[in-house]
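Let us work through a complete example step by step.
Step 1: write down the sequence.
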Amino acid sequence: MKATPEHRERWQKICRDFRDSGMSQRGYCRAQGISVSSMSYWLRQERSALEEPGHPKPADAGMIPVGTLFQGIGPVLRIRIGGDLVAEVNLPADEDTLRTVLRAARSL
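Step 2: predict the structure and record it as tokens.
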């Protein structure tokens, strides 16, 4: 069964809210009454959509790629730049990655 555009948009918002929450996936799902398996499914859908040919990559969108920006199971460093731009870095991160992120933030 293919998801409707409305259903897909709803889950995109849920995934965005989850990443902004700073909570673990399990904790966020518990607090929102969402199944962990559904959340995992939609996070995977987002990741695979980014890998599709023709999908704008961060460099195409005027951003500087600095490594993996998807939230994993571990802690994530979030840097807010203005109201809409958020850089996420999985921790632990090496010093070069953090320097690149900070340089990119300063250049905006």
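Step 3: interpret the result. Residues 57-62 have pLDDT under 50 and may be disordered.
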